Amino acid sequence: MTLFLTQFDVNVARRDAARLLASPERLHAAVLASFPPGQSASESARTLWRLDRGPANHDARIMIVSPLQPDLTVLNEQAGWSTGVPGRSADYDPFLRDLRAGSVWRFRCTVNPTTAVRQPGASRGRRVAEVTAEQQLEWFVTRLERRGFRLPEDPSGAPSARVTRREVLRFRRQSSTVTLSVAQVDGILEITDPDAARSALTSGIGPAKGYGCGLLTLAPLAR
Amino acid sequence: MQSWGDSSRFTTRATRREPTKSGVLGLLAAAQGRRRTDSIEDLLSLRFGVRTDQPGSVVRDFQTAMDWSHPKKDGSVNSMPLSNRYYLADAIFVAAVEGDPSLLHALDEAITEPVFPLYLGRRSCPTEGRVSLGVRDGDLLTVLANEPWHAKPWHQRRLPRSVRLQIAYDTESGQVGDTVRDIPLSFDPQRREYGWRDITTTTTTVDNPHGNDEPDWFAGLEGA
């Protein structure tokens, strides 16, 4: 299995960039346009992406984890900087291979916390979004703990994670409107089961992965 | 723009990610006005190390050329071989040479008033701004580790508060290193010759007051 981690800096001042940022569906199409047809997924991994907004309004970047190294030309033409570096790609494999149980990392993940609620008489449940930040965090922590991670508790006994951005995205998809409730969670986690953790990092967490949800990334703790 | 080739053959003109010893010694020799056929024996005694302050990015120039100066009888012209030329854009390095103080002072003076134009690895990459940071006392590695960080503010802002810079230097005896072929034995255009050199790398940590606290998702990845 080969995987790549990519960062693409968005030039938010550009008209096409604003168009892309307004709709996760268009952004997903633009990310997938970085790969040849049919090569954005392999048997064990799919292309996951996430839009990170920094503290300043112009600070926007797309993180991508993909089985093929993306060709950022098209994305760069639409939403990049004509000067400077269009993006940054690195081989993700050595990092994934070396994950150890007990290691502690900073993380970020944007998720769409929803639960399917059984409907009487219907074959499948209706997806219902978690509403408050507490519910969203609880949803995330439960999923994380099933996927080979543990959240160490901070001195006050609370889990070392919090919801740092909450948003309800509404955008057009063909003739209907999609409504997505997304939450960005930042914090510190510990790996308990490296194999499960690898699968969570490569296949994503929760629903709406095509709309920029589910990608979990890790960074070393600041020294 | 800079380009530091150490293994280019024919139509692929590569660049290393940091300056080569041959490139820097060639720059020093050009500053002193040495001709290509002149001896560079004394420069070879210098110990060389380079710190990567801002890695920059590799850019490719797919170059086409026509030989307009020698048209054929029917007026058509020959096309020259197509070549791929690689350059480093937006990169900043601190290169240091260690050796005899009188030689170093002479070189430093020569750089402020170079005899031949100076360029960064290739003729098409002229130097810009201040080239020499002056002469420092001390051992090569200590001086490189203590030199202030020269990265541009835009680069500093996108890195964390603590940054590790790579230093690549001539291997001391007994150390194991990467082998590259960039010891200039002769710059003579008739018979350029390069010898082998072993490089060891280490890192130095600098504080980055302009850094952001955003996590760097690449920091856990090797060699990224």
UniProtKB/TrEMBL annotation, chain A:
InterPro entries assigned to the protein according to its UniProt record, in alphabetical order: CRISPR-assoc_prot_Cse3 (IPR010179)
Top-level division of the source organism's lineage: Bacteria
Listed Pfam families: CRISPR_assoc
NCBIfam families registered for this protein in UniProt: casE_Cse3
Protein name, per record: Type I-E CRISPR-associated protein Cas6/Cse3/CasE
Annotated gene: cas6e
Automatic annotation (TrEMBL), chain B:
CDD domains: Cas5_I-E
Stretch forming the signal peptide: none
Protein's UniProt keywords contain Membrane: no
Coiled coil: none
Gene3D superfamilies per the UniProt record, alphabetical: 3.30.70.2660
Presence of the UniProt keyword Ribonucleoprotein in the record: no
Region of interest called Disordered, as start-end residue ranges on this chain: 203-224
Keywords: Antiviral defense
Short name of any one Pfam family annotated for the protein: Cas_Cas5d
NCBIfam families from the UniProt entry: casD_Cas5e, CRISPR_cas5
Name of this chain's protein: Type I-E CRISPR-associated protein Cas5/CasD
Species annotation: Cutibacterium equinum
High-level lineage: Bacteria, Bacillati, Actinomycetota, Actinomycetes, Propionibacteriales
